Predict the 3D structure of the following.
Amino acid sequence: MSTLQSTFTSGHRHFLASLFPGDALVLDTASLTAFATDASRKSAMPWAVVRPESTQQVSELLRWAQAEGVPIYPRARGTNKVGAVVPVQGGIVVSTLRMDRIIDIDSGDFVAEVEPGVVTSHLAEAAAAKNMFYPPDPASVKSSTVGGNVATCAGGLKAVKYGVTRDYVLGLTAVLPGGAVVSFGSRCHKDVVGLDLARLFVGSAGTLGIVTRLVLKLLPLPEARASVLAAFSSPEEAVAAAQSVFRAGILPTACEFMDSSAMGALSRLFDAEWLHGAGGAILLQVDGISPAVDAEIASIKEVLQTSAPVYLMAGQGAEEEQAWEMRRQLSQAGYQLGPDKLPEDVAVPRGRLLEAVAGFRAISAEQRVPVIIFGHLGDGNLHVNTMHDASDVAMATRAATCRAAIVDLALSLGGTASGEHGLGLSKREHLTKQISPAELALMRQVKAVFDPQGIMNPGKEW
Amino acid sequence: MSTLQSTFTSGHRHFLASLFPGDALVLDTASLTAFATDASRKSAMPWAVVRPESTQQVSELLRWAQAEGVPIYPRARGTNKVGAVVPVQGGIVVSTLRMDRIIDIDSGDFVAEVEPGVVTSHLAEAAAAKNMFYPPDPASVKSSTVGGNVATCAGGLKAVKYGVTRDYVLGLTAVLPGGAVVSFGSRCHKDVVGLDLARLFVGSAGTLGIVTRLVLKLLPLPEARASVLAAFSSPEEAVAAAQSVFRAGILPTACEFMDSSAMGALSRLFDAEWLHGAGGAILLQVDGISPAVDAEIASIKEVLQTSAPVYLMAGQGAEEEQAWEMRRQLSQAGYQLGPDKLPEDVAVPRGRLLEAVAGFRAISAEQRVPVIIFGHLGDGNLHVNTMHDASDVAMATRAATCRAAIVDLALSLGGTASGEHGLGLSKREHLTKQISPAELALMRQVKAVFDPQGIMNPGKEW
């Protein structure tokens, strides 16, 4: 890593201007500032931003960057919450947003081929127009890109039934440092020839190369969907009720949870009966053909009735959409409890959820800072956001203590420091709590096969 | 690779005897013969077979093997069809069959922890006893092991809806050449910390290390299942009818196909009305809660009626089980058409299935050797077995030509030489038709991170 350049030279500028004419090269400070940060609020100025339009252009860039030892940071919409795209060691940010073509959506193959800069919801809508289904739907689905989702192995609401981004990547084309263009996988739904390097790229956070084309699996579009919203006296009862659904042999499409703090925050933005007086709520969705959906909703209601809900509603259409819109607003609603947020996205084994929720609440009480707890109960993946006022130094210190204790509790329950966001910059200190030196050394050696000089997204996890 | 030992010395024998007392070490020729081959009929004698019972024993073995340059071949039940476990360069076969404990099946976490030698159906049964579901079910499910399934990324009948073995591996422990014991992943259903090396092991065919423990995801056990069997005038109509089910927005659990040759072979073993006079058949299964299953079966029948089936039956229970039993006997039934078999398991993009089936039949006619075509239509993954009499030299030559043409046709349709079995020894010549030199070099460099001296399963794909 010591071979990396630390200054931007006139020679660098000259090369970039020749490869990226016009506004495909960004150099002015005001414009660069927008590329210095992401949703983490971590920040570092890049030397330049380039906007390639083709695999060939990316290849020429990475041939040069490898020879020159110039750090490279792939970036799409910058919705990342942990600073994963922040150019922390200086260098060139490569925006994939001009590589945003949906190349092919094939209703014979049930395959989409796309460039990385396609917004995920645009892909999902284009597939739906042909009666097909692209399931991964992180909360950022309307603003984040497929390429970004692949870089983080994004999950989302429907991961319980449909899995995460990894499960939809059949193949990809990537450019490696040095400029080599490689492709792995195929349009086949099953292919076991060779080591599975396509999926190694999924979740690699831009540390191996730049993905320029993706082959994605599509499913038949479910005919119908419906949801059940149930509120309970305590968050623990809500968690236990959700677990009873799984035990009844039902695999919901989505199974979301929110605790009383989350509901309290929502109640300041929305007027809904179920937000008042309950300690926790769950929101489940099922999908499929209409009669199957009706039958599953009836079963879920029957199971949940035995858990003594204080509120129970099943709905479709506008009524259902309103509940999910509230769910999507939860992260934002947290700001009702404090102007600053320390977000966590820990996951625990599903059987430890009760302990985790109780523990997170105890930590919050002990540190006297509010947390809101919500997220993907079916995956054991909880968002625990510590809300505070960063200008109050004492509170900010307690908030940081609270956040660290949340991760440590999750890890002590056999959990992970990140179920969705990755560690990036802002959670990097947890890496060695979870990954031992031998495993980390292997990850770094595997990275070095693709990126021997360490030019790809340096200063991050591995 | 040149550092590998080519002879078994008395020093080697002495070390193995000390580490593997009693019948944990196999040296006599008669016993070794059973470990020389697998379901491929390829064969090569090992120097010795060892039967470790613990990760620690495997670690000591691989520390020694690395230092001595002794080739190591992990092996479980030897059901592999392509010679992937044949000790082709001499060395030690490591049987995992004494590491066959189901360590934990947890209905809170929806997780199983197992050793690699557990037979897959035993795991599925133990999970079902706790109302949980382990979906991967290769045809060999009652004889192959979870460890073998992980080595090949086994698919199976239910892959259409539930995915393949890869999708159930949450974490694993492996021993690497040199003896290092490493663990990746966790009991969390979502975990994005670090490079995804757990899944890199899935499908790596024993070329990276020896997996000694697996953490597997379980699902809720579906309450009910039911199947639809439909026969059509031609195989092409059968394929088209299956595709109409997907277009109707239905995702079946399984979607199997058989052509008229396969049905003809079956009709010599079973007496069933639908086996006579039709050109092709499809067998679909759905699962879920009972009313949902009923609704989906009704929808599938309605869709299939529009494709003018010559036979259409929906069933549950014994009637359904009989149809699936016939499906499981298909590979064996092929021997009704010839005493020898050249098996293929190509896959093609799903939209190319009609061309593939027609092309395979044309190749069979041209070469005047029977093929039976059946398999996982929903995944585009077909088993195409060329049946012949190997003692008839002219026919054997035509059979080999037929087999090669089948793979070449699949590849020309954008397909893969293997959807399930891997390439192993007997299909190794297809590797460079599908994987280009740059990608293959990367795979070999990644392998070298784990196995720098190439002692793990040498002489196979990469």
Remarks:
- Residues 133 and 221 of chain A are 5 Å apart (CA to CA).
- Chain A has a mean pLDDT of 95.
- Residues 10-97 of chain A form a domain with the Uridine Diphospho-n-acetylenolpyruvylglucosamine Reductase; domain 2 fold (CATH 3.30.43.10).
- The two ends of chain A are 12 Å apart (CA to CA).
